[in-house]
């Protein structure tokens, strides 16, 4: 009989967030609301299809659009992806370095969410549903290796 190897642990993913937020909150599905990095992304209201009916729409309150909030938590598959993700945003005119001043790096077991991340087209971040926090450690702009920081501005 051939021996089979079962994978007992789930895949782990990496995320950086504000140190003042309790990482355990990530396990609460009520908090799985992913928004864009800065500003507000809007999508056409799925109920009235963009204010094209005479009936009042309670989903968008007749605005025709709703904020594009997706069900999941942004994360990276590998540390390398995470370094690259933030490295691309470290130019002089960005808020990224400032944002990273008081953050933690979280490793968590998670399932991949059904929605794509807002930044999914870059291929570096995905949406996940966290199941268990594996580790939490301080993280700052100095923790991103220099070779990942892209000078594009
Ligand atoms: Zn609507």
Number of helices: 2
Low-confidence stretches: none
Number of structurally distinct domains? 2
Beta percentage is 25-35%
Fraction of residues in H or I helices: under 10%
Task: Output the radius of gyration.
Answer: 19 Å
Q: What would you say this structure looks like, in words?
A:
The structure is a single chain. The chain has 153 residues and is mainly beta. The chain has helices at 79-87, 96-99, and strands at residues 12-18, 33-34, 42-44, 65-67, 70-71, 73-75, 103-112, 126-139. The longest helix has 9 residues, at 79-87. The structure holds zinc ion. Zinc ion (ZN) binds next to loops.
Overview features:
153 residues; mainly beta; 2 domains; 4-stranded antiparallel sheet; 2 helices; 8 strands; 29% strand; binds zinc ion
Secondary structure layout plus pairing:
Blueprint lengths: L11 E7 L14 E2 L7 E3 L20 E3 L2 E2 L1 E3 L3 H9 L8 H4 L3 E10 L13 E14 L14
Antiparallel strand pairs: 1-7, 2-5, 3-4, 6-8, 7-8
The protein binds zinc ion.
